[in-house]
Amino acid sequence: MSASVRGPHGRRPWKLTPARLGLYGFLIICALFFLTPLYVMIVTSLKDMPEIREAHILGLPTAPSLAAWSKAWFAACTGLTCNGIRVGFVNSLRIMIPSVIVSIIVGAITGYALSFWRPRGAVLLFGVLIAVAFIPYQVFIYPLVRIFSYLGINNSIAGIVTIHTIFGLPTMTLIFRNHFAALPEELFKAARVDGAGFWRIFGVIMLPMALPIIVVAVILQVTGIWNDFIFGLVFAGRENLPMTVQLNNIVNSTQGEREYNVEMAATLLTAIVPLVVYFVSGRWFVRGIAAGAVKG
Amino acid sequence: MRIGSRLSTHLALAPALLIALVAYCGAMGWTIWISFTNSRMLPSSVFVGLRQYSSLLANERWQVSVQNIAIFGVLFIAMALALGFVLAALIDQRVRAEGLLRSVFLYPFSMSFIVTGLAWRWLLNPTLGIEKVGHDLGLAWFRFDWLVRPERVIYTLVFAAVWHAAGLVMAIMLAGLRGVDPEIWKAARVDGIPAWRAYLFIVVPLMRGSFATAVILLAVSVARLYDLSVAMTNGGPGIASEVPAKFVMDHLFERGNVGLATAAATTMLITVVAVLAPLMYWQYRQPARRPV
Description:
The complex is a heterodimer. Chain A is mostly helical. Chain A has helices at 18-45, 49-54, 67-74, 86-117, 122-132, 138-151, 157-181, 185-193, 198-209, 211-227, 230-235, 243-252, 260-281, 283-293. The two termini of chain A are 14 Å apart.
């Protein structure tokens, strides 16, 4: 997590030598490669269909229009219903907000209990949690569907929130445990001597010190849950399909002529939330990756 | 007091314990058990030994899926590692606008595989996509229709996935590079070792922890590859871009063959454990060398 505590230290900076020019040239070409899909999505969404068919994908729109965006938002069709991608947007919000809150609370408490209190079996429990972070979801999905329908929470917001809590637990526990484990043990001992118990130490001492890691957890969970496809598809139910699933349905179930401008507008609308989180959070996003990456 | 705290600890761990016992271990055990039964639409309890596994091995779609994931896994990990490391090494040369470049290389990683797949599918559209750009430039011979060519389609998934993940590798590598002792650069300079050799023979071995982290993260996303295939090709043309995770999902929820699907899922599980266990063991043994 000590990302970039020191500055860059490759070779010394020179004046603009040929090697230096080559370096910048290569980086700029790479940057263009990374930006091209986003650029193409944006310009396509601003064109009308005749222009898309005639001009090529890299060209700027001659008469930029937001018609495709408005159609994608209000009137894009999945199958027979044409209510636009906004339905999925609302569903994604309804899934994401409780899922983020519940998964972070469970992860924070688990990480705290495992870091300071070390009950018997803590190592085993932690080992199981970490192992699951690497196992393909397909191993768990079918029995969970059966269990959830037995409990009556399949195809509901409660079901999908539970699923995001279940599969967010390894990463959430890990980052909170690592954060708490790095705090000085004396802090904990002093509080114990003063007679504070489990929940008091958690609420009064640990939570306020966990603010930075809570921010990291929120970033991780908001982007992860917003981008989820497989769980939303299986567990959310037809009434609550998240935006990614609805987007895929809009694009992949089109009958007749395809409207690429509407498809790209809908795609961009789906990407906006994680992109905003990414560009607003900046270095925090990288911290989140680093924190989640230190498995074990 | 002491007893109260111990009780609270167990209470606090109850949700995690429940999840670990039921949702992880229980579900996994159940999946493995079903794979030994003759379940079709619904799970049955008739034990049939390894029959599901032998029909899985004989299944053409599964064979294509395994072959695809092998090609995809090797190429994707190799290319993402190479591109990510090169980008990190170049950004580390005290370039201008470092923050901007890092944002540009990492932003794809913030987006979903569905968005990634749909964007690349449009870009590689055989009539209106990149191929048309070539034609409009007067290159009538230019063909880029890999998306609809069965023997090439898997490489388009590699393309899109590398675009998505290279920035992640860059971020991990950059953190690793910043953890390298600056004295090493001075020593290399004094000894007259060219920069590329210093990177290849001194810095890369020092950064094996970063490489292990990156390889593990990339390998996990290979095993989970599903959304990208669904959005970009939906397994097509025909079954040319099917992958194991999609095989499991389709047999569970569309084709109603739970026995075969769980046999496939169990096979995935065994493969993942066999590949990742040595890697993780190797990384565990050298905790000091883990800058990220």
